[in-house]
Amino acid sequence: MNADEPIRFDTKIAVLLREDLEPWQRLNVTAFLVSGLGTQVPEVIGEPYEDADGVRYLPMFRQPVLVFEGTKETLTAAHTRALSRALPRALFTSDLFTTGNDRDNRAAVRAVPTGEMDLVGLAVHGPRNAVDKVVKGARMHP
User: Fold this and answer.
1) Alpha-carbon span 102 to 108, nearest angstrom
2) Judging by DSSP bridges, how do beta strands 65-70 and 49-50 pair with one another?
């Protein structure tokens, strides 16, 4: 591979947000969702950064994160498709806006059956075409 050629990835990271979220909620949900992917899919993390003075910075995702939005129904359908494809995923439910800590977050998710969750965000990673199928019907976030 030529060092000047752009790197093409055979996988994709996508975040799907419910369209009725407030701007602060969109940012908060996105940050929480993508944090989960890096812990369970370490190959999505690139190398650490270093500036010209030798100051080091944490590594970040090695590929773009595409952010989509859709209706509650679009999110529910995407969740079902992600589960059926067994893709690595993270979720955020509306209940998590009312909790104040990590333990209560887990309890809030655990208390609701899969098909009854009030999803406001979903992040998935996987082969490009599989992720495209998961987010089908969603539109790129403006």
Assistant:
1) 10
2) unpaired
- What percent of the chain is predicted at pLDDT more than 90? 82
Question: What is the pLDDT, as a whole number, of residue 38?
Answer: 85
Q: CA-CA distance, 29 to 17, in Å (whole number)?
A: 8
SS (H, E, C) the chain: CCCCCCCCCCEEEEEEEECCCCHHHHHHHHHHHHHHHHHHCHHHECCCEECCCCCEECCCECCCEEEEEECHHHHHHHHHHHHHCCCCEEEEEHHHHCCCCHHHHHHHHHCCCHHHCCEEEEEEEEEHHHHHHHCCCCEECC
DSSP 135: T
Q: How far apart are alpha carbons 140 and 19 in whole angstroms?
A: 11
Structure tokens at 137: 């019907």
Beta pairing partners, 140: 68
The pTM assigned to this predicted structure is: 0.90
Are the C-beta atoms of 79 and 119 separated by less than 8 Å?
A: yes
Weakly modelled stretches of the chain, pLDDT under 50: none
